[in-house]
Design a protein that fits this description.
Strand order of the largest sheet: 1-2
Strand content: 5-15%
Helix content: 40-55%
Structural class: mainly alpha
Number of domains: 1
Number of strands: 2
Radius of gyration: 13 Å
Number of helices: 4
CATH topology: 434 Repressor (Amino-terminal Domain)
Distance between the termini: 7 Å
CATH class: Mainly Alpha
Length: about 90
C-alpha cells in the first residue's frame, strides 16, 4: 500500500496540504478505475459525500481522509515539520 500526502505548518499551509492530499486521492481513485460509488461503499458513506469531499466543499476529518486513502489502496502519513509542505506517492507504489 502506498503513502498519500504529508500536511505540515500553519492553518493556511494545512488547507493547501489538504487540497493536495485530496487531489492525490482523486488521482489514485481515477488511476485505479474506481468510481465514486465504489469508493463510497468501501468508506461506508454515500457517493454524494465523496463528491463533496473531492470538490473540497467540506473540511474533512482526519478519519475521513484515512478511510478515503484505504478505499483507494493507500494510507495516510502525517508528520510535523518546519513549514515544508509536500504531497507525494513513493516509488514502487501501485
Amino acid at each position: 500500500m502506498g503513502v498519500v500526502g504529508v500536511v505540515h505548518g500553519s492553518l493556511e499551509a494545512r488547507s493547501v496540504g489538504l487540497r493536495a492530499v485530496l487531489r492525490a486521492l482523486v488521482h489514485e481513485r481515477e488511476a485505479r478505475g474506481l468510481s465514486r460509488t465504489a469508493v463510497a461503499a468501501r468508506m461506508g458513506t454515500s457517493e454524494a459525500a465523496v463528491a463533496r469531499l473531492e470538490a473540497g466543499r467540506v473540511d474533512p476529518r482526519l478519519s475521513t481522509l484515512e478511510r478515503f486513502a484505504e478505499a483507494v489502496g493507500k494510507h495516510l502519513e502525517l508528520g510535523l515539520g518546519d513549514g515544508v509542505l509536500r504531497s507525494e506517492g513513493r516509488a514502487g507504489d501501485a
